[in-house]
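queue> holo job accepted (magnesium ion)
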Amino acid sequence: MQSSASLTISDLWIERGERDLCKGLSFSVQPGEVVRILGENGAGKSSLLKIIAGVLSPLEGKILYSGEDVTLDRTSLQQDAIYLGHSVGVKGLLTVAENLRWYCPDISISILYSVLTQLDLIDLVDVLVKKLSAGQARRVALARLWLTKKTLWLLDEPFASLDVGGVALLEERIQQHVLLGGLVILTTHQDLMSITPHDVVLLS
Amino acid sequence: MTYSSFFVSEFLVLWRRKQDVFNALLFFIIVVALFPIGINSSPDFLAPAAAGIVWCAAVLAILMAVESIFKEDYLDGSLEQLVVSGLSLPLLILLKVAAQWLVVVLPLLVIIPLLSEMLYLPSSGFWVLIMTLIVGTPSLFFIGVIGAALTVSIKQGAMLVMLLILPFYLPVIIFSTLAVKATQSGLPYSGLLAMLLAMSLLSLVISPFMTAIVVKASVN
Ligand SMILES: Nc1ncnc2c1ncn2[C@@H]1O[C@H](COP(=O)(O)OP(=O)(O)OP(=O)(O)O)[C@@H](O)[C@H]1O
Ligand SMILES: [Mg+2]
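queue> job finished
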């Protein structure tokens, strides 16, 4: 994990489906900061995260990661980031363990098992993900946050379909991460219990 | 994610979907078997037509396999994860196609001795047919994968893929069947094989980059 990473967005202009979602958006994320993006349904929160992650490109504006301009080539940002979107990217035909091995091949069995125990997934290690509930599948995707040492977390509604225990666990993990100097950008329609984020509001 | 863990997981998924591979193989066998039954079972008709029959059936089976190559990844979001993985997307696509090729074409090759007996293909022609399949089918996959990426976000994309890419398959089919016909009439065939190889290499170089661009456009 990079301890002095920072993300700066300046003058971002997002257009999607011929509609301007935001124009001249600027904000920055410093080490140890949680930024929450607020806005109504369809305001462009997911689009903004996708742009930072490099799934989409902005019409105009700059994205700087640790001082380096990554607007055109997002590779260096991507190598240090985790992006979790609405569809979480776990394969239904792989088991829980196989999915996590795919994303984090270097992880040792003992660490994998201890994380899965924390997340209440230990009994499901060898179950195909397509046989899990929505919340369990999301826990599998979120397990990557425990298993990898990436600095920048881009989480699109990470609390969706989690139960109360799951929400508390994830909030605790996010706090641990920012205490170590990590960067978190998330969107959520829920209130956060233990985290005090900086809010960025997208007006529609 | 690393390139090797991606390759391993691709094989695991293909293994879990072995029924699909088996279906494509069965389809291939049925198409080939219908010709002697439906048209003419005499060696005079079948021997010259054998390479053409095998190739047409192989093209159909490969189309079926390649058309849905990104479908599941698109739906569960893992295609998006490939785009944001920080790894080279063209290389990941190349690995994916390679895994798919191995899993679809190797069983075809295994079953061909049986089918060529059925079609009275002479043994000289048999080896050339095998060679054209090994050298020619990669280009079918590399061309097909561009079409599959173009139509991945469309619900009823299968037919569109076929219409889109079938014209590009024609040269491969023509050169392959010509090569087998050439051996059967005692003519040199290495030039035709070289053409097939050239097409496969060209599509190997171009297709992953084009597919990567199309995939990026499709996932948004
Ligand atoms: N694939 C797409 N193609 C074209 N336009 C899209 C696409 N996806 C979303 N949009 C449009 O972009 C706008 C922003 O969508 P986005 O998903 O970013 O909203 P959001 O803020 O995440 O909403 P929610 O709170 O519902 O998740 C919406 O008005 C939507 O109509
Ligand atoms: Mg959203």
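queue> Chain B has a mean pLDDT of 92.
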